[in-house]
Amino acid sequence: MPRIIEVQARPAYHLWLRYDDGIEGEVDLANMARRGVFKAWEDVSFFESVQIAPHGALVWDDKIDLCPDAIYLRLTSKAPYELFPTGTQQD
Q: Is residue 52 in a domain?
């Protein structure tokens, strides 16, 4: 699975990302903002504090983390089976 090598917070709950396979682009996380633990993003400086954790997840302090695989799927519009083959082909 490709790893995130760069992240930048952008306005309106967007993140610009670059993965080590050359894929880069922006994802819109506005649908997550203001709900549950993501209420913390209402503080713009907190949202902008996004980091890449050693294990590859996107993190905001120790309060929020996002799976890099899920973000990659969102960024590329690929389905999980395209990245995680099961060893059997479906027709």
A: yes
